[in-house]
Design a protein that fits this description.
InterPro entries: Gfo/Idh/MocA-like_OxRdtase_N (IPR000683), GFO_IDH_MocA-like_dom (IPR055170), NAD(P)-bd_dom_sf (IPR036291). Pfam families: GFO_IDH_MocA (PF01408), GFO_IDH_MocA_C3 (PF22725). Helix 4 packs antiparallel against helix 10 and helix 7 packs across helix 10. The radius of gyration is 20 Å and the shape is globular. The mean pLDDT is 97. The protein has 333 residues and is of the alpha/beta class. It folds into 2 domains: 111 residues, 3-Layer(aba) Sandwich (Rossmann fold), CATH 3.40.50.720; 175 residues, Dihydrodipicolinate Reductase, domain 2. The chain is built from 10 helices and 13 strands. A 7-stranded mixed sheet has the order 12-11-7-10-9-8-13.
Length: 333
């Protein structure tokens, strides 16, 4: 297969390494808004670099992986669909609700496979949590607790265009909560705080957030996130039921320290970032995309799924700003 990659930054260069290791990828073609960056990544991997991102659409691709900046997602995604190129696009689908809806409309009118990048769906722990919840082994689930705790904030130039902590970070939690439960969220409460660098507040964002989500069956979910978890990268999901309790993401490398006498768990070296924590999941995700591009399987994460998670993020941001409960129908198209 001849696979194109749009974007050669942090996640793009990592995807490039993964794609080069997959047997089905015979040729990898890389382009970036920064042509020199694309050239360097391609040269290191024995791939081909193109001078412009536009050149990807003239390259007879069997599939396109979009890892460019969020603002570029809608245009690149739609152009790929118009050319009949199966496409993998990192979350979110677009920076705004209006653009996300526009992409969804184009996708629904075409027969081109599209997969949105929510890698937690391919993590062994989250897969096991989903099976435990949906099989009924936990009994009825009364509480879910999800967290995404970054070890350090992103650079100042990133924050103003990120979409904010709910759309850029916690959207992963919102997606995975829907995925493991198979239920829909009906209303949210959310708040946020700024105790770190001033540039986050100046961008209208918060560096720490907490949200309470209520599902259509009455299950409650508590979601938290921060940009200042210097101990290490911490992503977990707890599912507490009437019969049993489980946790995904709790292992020797969890950056959490017990102060109980004699307790030494966890004692491993904490994960320094999301790539190290989710490396196997990212690899499985792209391997599945190649099957999607070959039209051997259906997309495991559609644009509609991306929209559903984005709507929860929109509701949480509105709840934070307006300091009130927000029902999902208030933000639904």
């Amino acid at each position: 297969m001849r696979i194109g990659l749009a974007g050669a930054g942090l996640i793009g260069s990592f995807h490039a390494q993964t794609l080069r290791q997959l047997p089905a990828v015979e040729e990898l073609v890389i382009a970036d808004a920064n042509a020199e960056r694309a050239r360097q990544v391609a040269e290191a991997l024995g791939a081909k670099a193109l001078p412009r991102v536009d050149d990807l659409f003239e390259s007879k691709l069997d599939g396109l992986v979009i890892a460019a900046a969020t603002a570029a997602h809608p245009e690149l995604l739609v152009r790929a669909i118009e050319r009949g190129i199966p496409v993998f696009c990192e979350k979110p689908v677009a920076p705004t609700l209006h653009e996300t809806l526009a992409v969804l409309e184009r996708v629904q009118g075409a027969r081109v496979p599209v997969q949105i990048g929510f890698q937690r769906r391919f993590d062994a722990g989250y897969i096991a949590a989903r099976e435990a919840i949906r099989s009924g082994r936990l009994g009825w689930v009364h509480t879910l607790r999800a967290c995404t705790l970054d070890e350090a904030p992103p650079p100042p130039e990133y924050v103003p265009t990120s979409g904010g902590i709910f759309r850029d970070c916690s959207i992963h939690d919102f997606d995975i909560l829907r995925w493991v439960t198979g239920r829909e969220i009906v209303h949210v409460h959310a708040t946020g705080a700024n105790r770190g660098d001033d540039y986050i507040r100046a961008a209208g964002d918060v560096d720490t957030m907490a949200a309470i989500l209520t599902f259509d069956d009455g299950t409650l979910a508590v979601v938290s996130a921060t940009m200042y978890n210097a101990k290490g990268y911490d992503v977990r999901l707890e599912a507490l039921g009437s019969k049993d309790d489980i946790c995904a993401g709790l292992d020797e490398r969890t950056p959490l320290r017990s102060v109980e006498p004699g307790v030494r768990f966890p004692s491993g070296t904490p994960y320094p970032g999301f790539i190290e924590r989710f490396r196997p999941a990212y690899q499985r995700e792209l391997a599945v995309f190649l099957d999607v591009a070959a039209r051997q399987v259906e997309s495991p994460c559609s644009v509609a799924d991306g929209l559903a998670a984005f709507l929860v993020a929109e509701a949480c941001e509105r709840a934070r700003r307006e300091r009130r409960m927000v029902r999902m129908e208030e933000v639904a198209p």
